[in-house]
Specification:
Low-confidence stretches: none
Distance between the termini: 47 Å
Number of domains: 2
Helix content: 25-40%
CATH superfamily of the largest domain: Vaccinia Virus protein VP39
Mean pLDDT: 96
Order of helices and strands: HEEEEHEHEHHEHEHEHEE
Largest sheet: 7 strands, mixed
Strand content: 25-35%
Number of strands: 11
Strand order of the largest sheet: 7-6-5-8-9-11-10
CATH topology of the largest domain: Rossmann fold
Shape: globular
Number of helices: 8
CATH architecture of the largest domain: 3-Layer(aba) Sandwich
Radius of gyration: 17 Å
Length: 225
Amino acid sequence: MQPEYVRYNQEVVERRSSAYQNIVIAYDPSVGHLLYLDDDLQIADADTPYNQAIISPLVDNDSYAESLILGGGDGGVLRGLLDAGAQRAVLVDIDGEVIELAKQYLPNLCGDAFERDGAEVIVGDAFAFLDAPDTWDGIVYDLTMDPIRVDQPRTDYICEIFAKVRRRLRPGGVMSMQCCGANEPGLREEIRAGLAATFPEWGDWEAEIPSFDVPWVFAWAKVGK
């Protein structure tokens, strides 16, 4: 299948191959610049509802003073948590080139978040970072649900992620995550099963995102105090 920037005749303004993936920045007058990784749409400059959605469980539960963002190299989640009043927000993304392109092409999302007080940016493996001993009031999982090992079943990967996240949450802490499109019921059910097996409280919901063709599913989970 052709990537969306081809199907929708979007203008490609930059192509780059990093050490980890192929990056395309395209432009569409309806949503501004769009970020594609390996030809999969990630986010557009108009997609502030995405970041508002994914941080809302942390904000609503007052669990964001010290927050960890796994992925999120576009900077929108980082900006949202700092705007909410986070004292410390640590973003871990494996690809520094995504961060640099976001600063240039996605200012509506990231603003000056990368340079603000309280922001810490670590270019590295977000999954491996969960093995660090630090604990957090809130964790935002803004990565794919595809296994990092080719021989690992997706359900095992999901459960492994959730177990690692739970160990890094402080009492009463909250995780929020992006899941999948509403047209992927199988993956949604796998995520629900993993949440139910790992956390005492959890839920999911859908939100409309300007550049996405389908409603997007988000989820939250909370540990006991």
